[in-house]
């Protein structure tokens, strides 16, 4: 596992975008797993800037980690009132770059048959040749995607009930400002499983801020446990890169022994 610590959120985002851009340049028809949330917004802004300078997404295939169950893009509502992850991805990245619509895959939160949909999502990933690079944040409860505490570490794409902490975190970060009550938030999501994520060829995990420091240290250095599903990174066999800002890295023990801060 390669841990890179950058001074602040902006530097973390630039470094993550460079890592993604490097793959696209090396393999123009690569398959990238994207994440939503506050953490990757800076990375996406940087990718958009790089696209304006020529970074070509026309061969890239995208698979997103998750979507709230019950939500899909709703163009009748302004972005502030449409909390779907599909809308987030279009607004924050996809509509600004030249990725082909047919190459974008996001779990369909409006499906009437979630079980069948989840099977097909796994199949679609396989048919695309697997994911070359999966971008991941980490939840306050240690989740990867919406694999909440207790999720099996070999889980596949499925419906998952959101934890109280995730509901609280996402309410504060996204729903509250748009005038939603907590009761109006979706309580379930369709999410790739930890097993699905561990099948990818490389992982890029990003985190910033003091509020993530403890959970980052637990995931990277604590025991591997399904109570902190991001701790599965320690059993990952592929190439894992973790880019943190100094605040998120502040509780890591190993950094006191290494010079990997840049
Ligand atoms: C988003 C996702 C989540 C987030 C995590 C952190 O697609 O899968 O696991 O990465 O909840 O969210 P932020 O970045 O908002 O702190």
Structure description:
The chain is of the alpha/beta class and 262 residues long. It has a single domain (2-245), classed as Rossmann fold, CATH 3.40.50.1360. The chain contains 7 helices and 10 strands. A 7-stranded parallel sheet has the order 1-10-9-6-2-3-5, covered by helices on one side. A 3-stranded antiparallel sheet has the order 4-8-7. The radius of gyration is 17 Å and the shape is globular. The mean pLDDT is 96. The structure holds fructose -6-phosphate (F6R). Residues 35-39, 65-66, 137-139, 143-146, 173 line the site of fructose -6-phosphate (F6R).
User: What is the CATH class designation?
Assistant: Alpha Beta
Present as ligands are: fructose -6-phosphate
Strand percentage, roughly? 15-25%
How many separate domains make up the residues? 1
The N- to C-terminal Cα distance equals 16 Å
- Estimate the global geometry from the Cα principal axes: globular
* Helix-strand makeup class: alpha/beta
Number of helices: 7
Strand order of the biggest β-sheet: 1-10-9-6-2-3-5
Which runs of at least 5 residues are low in confidence (pLDDT < 50)? none
Largest sheet: 7 strands, parallel
Offer a concise description of the structure.
The chain is of the alpha/beta class and 262 residues long. The chain has helices spanning 9-26, 41-52, 85-92, 114-127, 164-175, 194-198, 213-221; strands at residues 2-6, 31-34, 61-64, 66-68, 104-105, 133-136, 158-161, 188-191, 202-207, 239-245. The longest helix has 18 residues, at 9-26.
